[in-house]
Design a protein that fits this description.
165 residues; mainly beta
Length: 165
């Protein structure tokens, strides 16, 4: 049986205590999260065939949490905007708008839903508006679907804009 001297025993206890404290701190630390904070509806009345700017607020408790997050916006289930954040916004940007254009093509009730998909789960927000018929004789604008083909990328040091802004 071997016995350790006083200093070796104290070092062993110190290493054990440090490991226990480190594990406790790591388990108690909150996980970073990112996602859709809010989706802001355009002012009504909303008219079919007219393009509106919509702000989707991205929120995070950590700059790095945005990186790799995918955001998809749908109008009654059909993709109208999609983007994957490619880099952080700067250490102080914990909220940032991703502005995009939305052109409802039909009259009636439209529910626009934004969802974020990432390592922190799915977060979403939505709004519902009643879209009015386009005036007779008007030329409706074509619908937009920015990034729905997988090409959307958003990020940069300014933290604003994005595809479709």
């Amino acid at each position: 049986m071997s016995t350790r001297s006083g200093p070796a025993r104290r070092i062993g206890w110190g290493v054990t205590a440090l490991a226990a404290i480190s594990a406790t701190v790591a388990m108690a630390a909150p996980q970073a999260s990112a996602g859709v904070g809010a989706l802001v509806a355009p002012d009504e009345p909303v008219v079919a065939g007219t393009t509106y700017r919509v702000d989707m607020w991205l929120e995070s408790d950590s700059d790095a949490a945005f990186i790799g997050e995918k955001y998809v916006v749908t109008d009654n289930g059909k993709c109208i905007y999609s983007v994957t954040v490619s880099w952080g916004f700067g250490s102080t940007m914990l909220q940032s708008p991703a502005r995009f254009r939305w052109t409802p093509t039909t009259a009636g009730s439209h529910t626009v839903t934004a969802k974020s998909y990432g390592t922190y789960g799915v977060r979403s927000d939505s709004f519902t508006v009643n879209v009015a018929e386009a005036p007779a004789g008007s030329t409706p604008e074509p619908a937009t679907t920015t990034g729905c083909d997988g090409s959307g990328s958003f990020g940069g040091s300014s933290g604003s804009g994005g595809a479709g802004s």
